[in-house]
Amino acid sequence: MADLTSNFLGIKSPNPFWLASAPPTDKEYNVRRAFEAGWGGVVWKTLGAEGPPIVNVNGPRYGAIHGADRRLLGLNNIELITDRPLEVNLEEMTRVKKDYPDRALIASVMVPCEEDEWKRIIPRIAETGCDGFELNFGCPHGMAERGMGSAVGQVPEYIEMVTRWCKEATDLPVIVKLTPNITSILNPAQAAKDGGADAVSLINTINSITNVDLDLMAPEPTIDGKGTHGGYCGPAVKPIALNMVAEIARNPGTHGLPISGIGGVTTWRDAAEFMALGAGNVQVCTAAMTYGFKVVQEMISGLSQWMDEKGYTSIDEVVGRAVPNVTDWQYLNLNHVTKARIDQEACIKCGRCYAACEDTSHQAISMSDDRVFDVKDDECVACNLCVNVCPVEGCITMETIAPGAVDERTGKVVEKEYANWTTHPNNPTATAAE
Amino acid sequence: MPQTNRENGVSPGRIAPADVQANFSDLHPEYDDHEALVAADRCYFCHDAPCMTACPTSIDIPLFIRQIATGTPEAAAKTILDQNILGGMCARVCPTETLCEEVCVREVAEGKPVEIGRLQRYATDTLMAAGKHPFTRADATGKKVAVVGAGPAGLACAHRLAMLGHDVVVFEARVKGGGLNEFGIAAYKTTNDFAQKELDWLLSIGGIEIRYEQALGQSVTLDGLQDDFDAVFLGMGLSAVNALRLEGEDKDNVSPAVDFIADLRQADDLTTLPVGRRVVVIGGGMTAIDAGVQAKLLGAEDVTIVYRRGQEAMAASKFEQDLARQKGVRLICNATPVGIEGNGSLRAVTFAYTETRDGKLVTLDETFTLPADQLFKAIGQKLGDMPDALALDGGKIAVDAAQKTNLAHVWAGGDCASGGDDLTVTAVAEGRDAAMDIHATLTGAS
Ligand SMILES: Cc1cc2nc3c(=O)[nH]c(=O)nc-3n(C[C@H](O)[C@H](O)[C@H](O)COP(=O)(O)OP(=O)(O)OC[C@H]3O[C@@H](n4cnc5c(N)ncnc54)[C@H](O)[C@@H]3O)c2cc1C
Ligand SMILES: Cc1cc2nc3c(=O)[nH]c(=O)nc-3n(C[C@H](O)[C@H](O)[C@H](O)COP(=O)(O)O)c2cc1C
Ligand code: SF4
Ligand code: SF4
Ligand code: SF4
């Protein structure tokens, strides 16, 4: 059996699945139940400064995108940080950590951008016995209007400054949670590193409007006839998050900076993908909000089975394994030729591949009177669209054309040698091949 | 099901009224909104969809299902009704298992088709419940068309003609319209007087006058109609029944299955409808199954359907055969009636076993006798008396691909015309196509 124990920044947890800072980690009641269900750790719902607690809207706070069968694909929220008094949260965190010493308990924090505010609250929170801090520079709505959250996360100088204050205020690990609402994730990640952060976590939610109520003519969720942009999360954001994680992992400046991967983790496979791209562990919010705490059981069993099948014995063996294979477009092998192949046994003759290719791609699929669909090798550019639209998993695959064979589309013999754009004759800035 | 009346003979009230009511409730109950969305989500929106090809009226099935899935069932209904104005009835009575759903790619892939029929019903019911009729009439053409028979074929033809701006008079032999929708279809397929509601809804387009109790050959003649109208459409179905040609066929309680079914459909109160304790049905089609099943549901203790050929030759679909078995009806194949016994009233029916040799049905010597209080003949309907001038083909009115008969300005469609299966949906398709050809002819477009 694979060992799923996680050691992230020296913080140990029985598995790499943490609940992200959000409603699932809002209070003692939830967190105890999450731990009972098997979650390895939690990042407590973001704490704010002392004083009168934050208020939330009293109307709807979520919007959603659904797939077939009303499967929740994307969730959007306009919730703020914790709306419970600081003192109550701290007491609860203390009690929970005492009862679950083997689980990770991280405090998420967001206070105004002033040195004494941060330096005052960090040590106070540390008294709970928490294992580390996560600085919330991510919330894209509400708090950002007050100069916090993503308003900080979008300015690398602020990130570096606040991170430094926090590192000066505690010996515990400090994780900086990044907002994806920027043009390049590398700048904020670099700033966090420069400020002394022990790790970054990403992504927080993406600025979004999920729907418009066409009767009220207002964005959803609608509160008394008005709506505002909210933070998008769930399965729909996973591709964006994966890319940002990979960028940090492969960029020389930030390579090696520990990453806690967040954004659309819904199954064990998602988690494995984040880890393969460099995340040391993952955090989950929407999947738990959609299916309840029990989903972690599938994540644990699935990851464990997959690791056993692959012969990986520990999480460390997985982390970052796919990073060397993330490259720039210009380095992709242009001599690698593939063609779509339809498994006629598996094909159910829906014709979707045909419609897609005929109407919108390369007219490379033929359809006979008795609905047999075939790939025309002399037209197929191997774009993969048919594979993506086919309702039968594994029915269409891409076959690699062996070097030496002729690509019927170009009429050229497929070459064995790797050759990319940088040396391609059509590239005006091509460097001469060595 | 507590049996309350075990008397021999034919009598009403064999089971509790509540059981009768439950037995005749909707076979495929209506979807609620949630069920419809879940079912609609399963459609792949196939290219050149096989289901659409299999539908005799060529309804754009992927489109209407997508319209349901995107929350516009009224638009879905319009898509359906554009092709099939009786889409509501067809949704209830089409043997989908041998039409659209049989070829649905998800039937092929998983043995579970998208439930096209029930989705179609959801869309059309939604529209009709809202009291909407999505079609209006084109400018009047001044042309007059006579339609004979207010069954599915006649109504589909009349509606299309009215929509195109022609004035239509329908001559109907019976006191009520709808044809077999009203008098033939099994009661549990079309509950709550749906046939009449659909008829009223169809007529709301305007321009269609129905003259009841006006039978062709009695009150009106084909010559007369040809003189008075610019075109004539014949959609009178099959009004006569085949006989067994056995002695004793005239005994009490021996009757055509279609008469029993018509009585059942017209009964105000099913609990007062008499049925035999032991019922025998002769035949192997939809009518035999419907008569057998409904006799059983009324409370007959023992119902047997006897078919002279093998099971594979039965015209009734597998789904219908299974339905009959599930309701407790016995099916006996390869037996043909040779004697009707009884003294005044029926007492028993004797059958001889049969065999098919070199494609020919042979009656064997061995016989068996089934006690019977009531016998229903369901061995086929046939065309009633037709004007001599009308050419026939295989016992039906001969028509070409455009539903034209051999007579000038006379078209025919539905069960009375050659070609096509005897189904509601084919009758609708043929009535509609005839209307299009009539229109083209009358407006000089062809
Ligand atoms: C018992 C039974 C069950 C069936 N179940 C199904 C089913 O579940 N699904 C399915 O798809 N199909 C079913 N069918 C077949 C279907 O009902 C017919 O195919 C369809 O009704 C044919 O339509 P039509 O308009 O041609 O004829 P009909 O429905 O027979 O209508 C003909 C109309 O013409 C009238 N008429 C007859 N003669 C004259 C005349 N001389 N002058 C004026 N009017 C006249 C009749 O009164 C009637 O109103 C069933 C048939 C029967 C008998
Ligand atoms: C309702 C809601 C409230 C959230 N509140 C916080 C928060 O207080 N602090 C924070 O750092 N992130 C917050 N998040 C962001 C999540 O922690 C997480 O980064 C994001 O949802 C992406 O992960 P997911 O796709 O698994 O949901 C919130 C998310 C949701 C849905
Ligand atoms: S999920 Fe619970 S709190 Fe939220 S709206 Fe529904 S009932 Fe209310
Ligand atoms: S999309 Fe897939 S299942 Fe459908 S026709 Fe093409 S290959 Fe067959
Ligand atoms: S064949 Fe089935 S899945 Fe395809 S369009 Fe028709 S109903 Fe939808």
UniProtKB/TrEMBL annotation, chain A:
<keyword id="KW-0560">Oxidoreductase</keyword>
<comment type="subunit">
    <text>Heterotetramer of 2 PreA and 2 PreT subunits.</text>
</comment>
<keyword id="KW-0479">Metal-binding</keyword>
<comment type="function">
    <text>Involved in pyrimidine base degradation. Catalyzes physiologically the reduction of uracil to 5,6-dihydrouracil (DHU) by using NADH as a specific cosubstrate. It also catalyzes the reverse reaction and the reduction of thymine to 5,6-dihydrothymine (DHT).</text>
</comment>
<feature type="domain" description="4Fe-4S ferredoxin-type">
    <location>
        <begin position="338"/>
        <end position="370"/>
    </location>
</feature>
<dbReference type="InterPro" id="IPR017896">
    <property type="entry name" value="4Fe4S_Fe-S-bd"/>
</dbReference>
<dbReference type="InterPro" id="IPR017900">
    <property type="entry name" value="4Fe4S_Fe_S_CS"/>
</dbReference>
<dbReference type="InterPro" id="IPR005720">
    <property type="entry name" value="Dihydroorotate_DH_cat"/>
</dbReference>
<feature type="domain" description="4Fe-4S ferredoxin-type">
    <location>
        <begin position="371"/>
        <end position="401"/>
    </location>
</feature>
<dbReference type="InterPro" id="IPR013785">
    <property type="entry name" value="Aldolase_TIM"/>
</dbReference>
<comment type="similarity">
    <text>Belongs to the dihydropyrimidine dehydrogenase family.</text>
</comment>
<dbReference type="Pfam" id="PF14697">
    <property type="entry name" value="Fer4_21"/>
</dbReference>
<keyword id="KW-0411">Iron-sulfur</keyword>
<keyword id="KW-0408">Iron</keyword>
<protein>
    <recommendedName>
        <fullName>dihydrouracil dehydrogenase (NAD(+))</fullName>
        <ecNumber>1.3.1.1</ecNumber>
    </recommendedName>
</protein>
<dbReference type="Pfam" id="PF01180">
    <property type="entry name" value="DHO_dh"/>
</dbReference>
